[in-house]
Amino acid sequence: MTPNTLRIALGLLLFGAAPLAVTAFPQQAVSDTHMSQVEEPAAAEEPTEVGQPGAEELTEVEQPTAATEQSIAEIAAGDENFEILTAAIEAAGLTEALSNPELSVTVFAPTDEAFEALPEGTLDTLLLPENRDQLAQILSYHVLDGEVLSTDLASGEVDTLAGAPITVVVSEEAVTINEANVVATDIEASNGVIHVIDSVLLPM
């Protein structure tokens, strides 16, 4: 099964409908320094922390041992900062898709604190079986097609697997995705890369 076929399969899991047409990244949203020019970090290297308020709160988010042998779903499940995210992935039926080693995606992963900051009752409602499709839509809004390292990000809009774009703003002080701050970057997995954010992204 090719990576493109897997992305179509992920689209089917997310929407239970026609495969999602994935659009290439707009040029303005990806820096000129592409992945091929970026040195691979050592397996034991900690994820890069973006210098901005609140980043120190996530200093315990560590690069798992032999992270490239673990999938995105496995890394999330093994990190205490992502317990709610892991529960949401399972409730949305996306664990298998995000465990496939042939998939290549980028995930902006909200911490437990980010989910807990949602309006009261929102999370409990989203985790109900009857709201599985809505939850999958929200989670897919945090996923980009292909592996995008922090050095590849530039200010602009980037399409997500939800079909709606996110807005990336890169400055000397911080990187933001919509209104969320990126607090740790480049946690590499066997099927992509994870960047940690401090707010849940909601499609408009």
Q: Could you give me the name of the CATH homologous superfamily?
A: FAS1 domain
- Summed up, the helix count is 6
Spans with pLDDT under 50 lasting ≥5 residues? Answer: 1-6, 12-45, 51-60, 63-67
Distance between the termini: 33 Å
Q: What name does CATH use for the topology?
A: FAS1 domain
CATH class: Mainly Beta
Query: Which secondary-structure class do the elements indicate?
Result: alpha+beta
Instruction: Tell me roughly what share of residues is in helical segments.
Output: 10-25%
Question: How is the largest sheet built, in terms of strand order?
Answer: 2-1-7-6-5-4-3
Radius of gyration: 16 Å
Topology as a string of helices (H) and strands (E): HHHEHHHEEEEEE
Largest sheet report: 7 strands, mixed
Instruction: Indicate the mean pLDDT.
Output: 78
Strand content: 15-25%
Number of domains: 1
- Counting DSSP E segments of at least 2 residues, the number of strands comes to 7
CATH architecture verdict: Roll
Shape: globular
Summarize the structure.
The chain has helices at 3-15, 72-77, 83-91, 112-116, 122-126, 132-140, and strands at 105-110, 143-145, 156-159, 165-170, 175-177, 180-189, 192-197.
Question: Would you mind describing this structure in some detail?
Answer:
The longest helix has 13 residues, at 3-15. It is globular and about 40 Å long. The N and C termini lie far apart (33 Å). It has a 7-stranded mixed β-sheet. It has one domain: FAS1 domain, CATH 2.30.180. Helix content is 23%, strand content 19%. It has 6 helices and 7 strands. The chain is α+β, with helices and mostly antiparallel strands and 204 residues long. It has helices at 3-15, 72-77, 83-91, 112-116, 122-126, 132-140; strands at residues 105-110, 143-145, 156-159, 165-170, 175-177, 180-189, 192-197.
